[in-house]
Amino acid sequence: MNRFLLLLLTISTFSSFAQVGAFNLGGRSAGMAGASLTLDDEYSLFNNIGGLGRVEDHAAFASYQNRYGVSQFQVIGAGAIYTTDIGNAGVGFYKFGDDIYSEQRVHLAVGNKIQMVSLSLGVDLLQYNVSTVGTSRALAFQFGGIAEISPQLRFGAHIFNLNQAKFDSETGERIPTVMKGGFSYRPTDELMLNMEVEKDLDFDEIFKAGIEYRIVEKVYVRTGISTQPFLGAFGLGFHPKNLKFDYGFSNDSKLGSIHELSVAYSFKK
After folding, report:
1. What is the CA radius of gyration of the chain?
2. Which CATH class is domain 3-267?
3. DSSP labels for 54-96?
4. 131 in the Ramachandran plot: left (φ > 0), alpha (ψ -120 to 50) or beta?
5. Residue 59 in contact with residue 46, Cβ under 8 Å?
6. pLDDT tens, 145-173?
7. Torsion of CA 233, 248, 106, 180, to 10 degrees
8. What is the pTM (predicted TM-score) of this model?
9. What is the pLDDT of residues 71-89, one digit of tens each?
10. Which residue ranges make up each domain of the chain?
11. How far apart are CA 52 and CA 43, in angstroms?
């Protein structure tokens, strides 16, 4: 059997844990069950690069996630954003797994805001490694955008793997292509309601809904749900001055609990 076909089968075995092609990151996103498509914070570099052009300050960030209490199923991610008057640029790193099986991603993106619309384009170097099989690498492109329909309403869209990148040209097996779309309603400065749908071309749709509420200055509470499988989430955020601390907890109905803690620091221009 072709070794990269075997790699694909191994990856499929882990897909329930790793969600190949989905790289959501950050405690804020986790606390809303991943309903983060219209956010324009530092972690938009991972959740929807369409928000990159709306980031106002230079920033650096890092996040740690543990899935299901299994040390091998952990995610680490970090990145930085540089802002200019003509557009923003970001670089990020993501890793899931251990020495036996791992997914790694190096991500570059550029974005700009034109009036009420922010658009961004990114390229990812993806690496999948199985210790007994080998390593496969590929380049995948992504595109995203956020439109401010009104001061209270935003629409976001994102597509990952525009170029239909493949694990290996011999087998023709490709990296998942994932599309997302959704709305955010913000009736007040304190309250945000998000709804979105995510679709992998080979699987059923995933529906997500999340709420964020600022209870006092600099302190946030969040909750959310997601389908396929059902996932309930809760989160907290504390944002003193230029720092942001966010924690998200979610419970996968099939596999167990997930914890994520993230930090970000903004450098004022």
Report:
1. 18
2. mainly beta
3. G--SEEEEEEEEEETT-TTSEEEEEEEEEEETTEEEEEEEEEE
4. alpha
5. no
6. 999 999 999 999 999 999 988 876 666 67
7. 30
8. 0.87
9. 888 999 999 999 998 999 9
10. 3-267
11. 9
Find out whether 7 and 133 touch, Cβ atoms under 8 Å: yes
- The amino acid occupying position 94 is Y
CA 242 from centre of chain: 22
**DSSP symbol at 41:** S
The label of the residue with tokens 């954003």 reads: 81
For residue 105, give every residue at least 6 positions away whose Cβ sits within 8 Å of its Cβ, in sequence order, or none.
23, 92, 93, 94, 95, 124, 125, 126, 127
Q: Which amino acid, residue 206? A: I
Q: Quick: pLDDT tens for 197-231.
A: 999 988 899 999 999 999 999 999 999 999 988 99
Rounded Cα distance between 259 and 9, Å, is 28
